[in-house]
Design brief:
With about 325 residues, the protein is α/β, with parallel strands linked by helices. It has helices spanning about 10-20, 35-40, 45-50, 65-70, 80-90, 115-125, 140-145, 160-170, 180-205, 210-230, 240-250, 255-265, 270-275, 280-295, 300-310, 315-325, and strands spanning about 1-5, 25-30, 60, 75, 100-105, 135, 150-155, 175-180. The N and C termini lie far apart (about 50 Å). The relative contact order is 0.10.
């Protein structure tokens, strides 16, 4: 198959290498000339992976989206959520046939509060694509690029579409399971980014494993409460897109959300971090979206609310932690 990967960041690059390993024809599209030339000419993406990672020689990269999409049977959308809608509008005139659209983003459209698959449906008509598939779960690009064992899900309301992508991406170090609960899976992988920021804050404050275990457990309860309210299946939250993704994001040094939270916790303030951060930390925007939705539908999300207060209302992590601990005692 010819596969176009739109986005030259860490995850897009790791998946491009994986698909080359699987003997697919892969071309990457990006808007950063230096990144594209690095991939095309030097077989590296040194901005993200340094000089030690050598990419497959047959992997191509281009600044021309029309070239990338020509004849593409699968299009992997590997850009931050804030850039997704614009990308979809740009690519729409160049789509040929009915390709599979595979989203690997985890978050929301911050303006409409839509899930990723909903945004794709709004921008790309059904006659121009197969059913949407989300390739999501506990996967860090920094490990996939090293070909370390990773398990994720191919999630789609159409099981046959999920199975096509499952077979395309699976190999001896990357195992893909199918999933059909799009609502539960997409909400869970988005909200866990907010919980991961909270986990980082606990680490930054100086708390230990006991506190983080409690946070992950109660954070999972919030994720279930939110997702099932909108029709997600409770069992989804015990799988790779729920508990699996939550564990890795709340504990890994590869997690931008955890590291962001840790820096905020050490400073006991979000002000300096937010003023200086140059990286995509999806949990920052997700916290605002989930806060607004929870307020509208009266869904109890105390951890998410605490993170929102730190990020958007200037409260100190230590103070909101004390407020959480002073909540009325209740049954688990």
């Amino acid at each position: 198959m010819k596969i176009a990967i739109l986005g030259t960041g860490t995850w897009g690059t790791a998946l491009a290498q994986l698909l080359c390993d699987n003997s697919q024809e892969v071309i990457m599209y990006g808007i950063d000339k230096d990144e594209v030339n690095d991939i095309q000419l030097h077989h590296q993406n040194s901005k993200y992976f340094g000089l030690d990672i050598l990419l497959p020689a047959d992997l191509k990269a281009t600044l021309n989206i029309k070239e990338a999409l020509q004849g593409a049977e699968v299009i992997v959308l590997a850009v931050p959520t804030m850039a997704l809608r614009s990308l979809l509008q740009t690519m729409k005139p160049y789509i040929q046939g009915k390709p599979y659209l595979v989203s690997v983003a985890k978050g929301f459209d911050t303006q409409s509060h839509r899930r990723i698959s909903e945004v794709i449906r709004e921008e790309i008509p059904q006659e121009n694509r197969q059913e949407i598939v989300s390739l999501i779960g506990p996967g860090h690009a920094e490990e996939v690029i090293l070909r370390l064992l990773t398990c994720v899900t191919s999630t789609s309301v159409d099981l046959s579409a999920a199975q096509v992508i499952q077979k395309l991406f699976s190999n001896d170090y990357f195992r893909v399971y199918t999933q059909t609960d799009e609502i539960g899976a997409e909400y869970s992988v988005a909200i866990k980014n907010t919980i991961a920021i909270a986990s980082g804050m606990l680490s930054g404050i100086g708390l230990g494993d006991n506190a983080r275990a409690a946070l992950i457990t109660r954070g999972l309860a919030e994720m279930v409460r939110f997702g099932t309210y909108f029709g997600g299946e409770e069992r989804t939250y015990l799988g790779l897109t729920g508990l699996g993704d939550l564990i890795v994001t709340c504990n890994s040094r590869h997690s931008r959300n955890f590291i962001a939270g840790e820096e905020i916790g050490k400073a006991n303030s979000s002000m300096v971090f937010l003023q200086n951060n140059q990286k995509t930390v999806e949990g920052i925007r997700t916290s605002k979206v989930v806060h607004e939705i929870a307020q509208e539908y009266h869904i109890d999300m105390p951890i998410t609310e605490a993170v929102y207060q730190v990020l958007y209302e200037g409260k100190r992590p230590k103070d909101v932690l004390q407020e959480l601990l002073k909540r009325e005692l209740k049954r688990e």
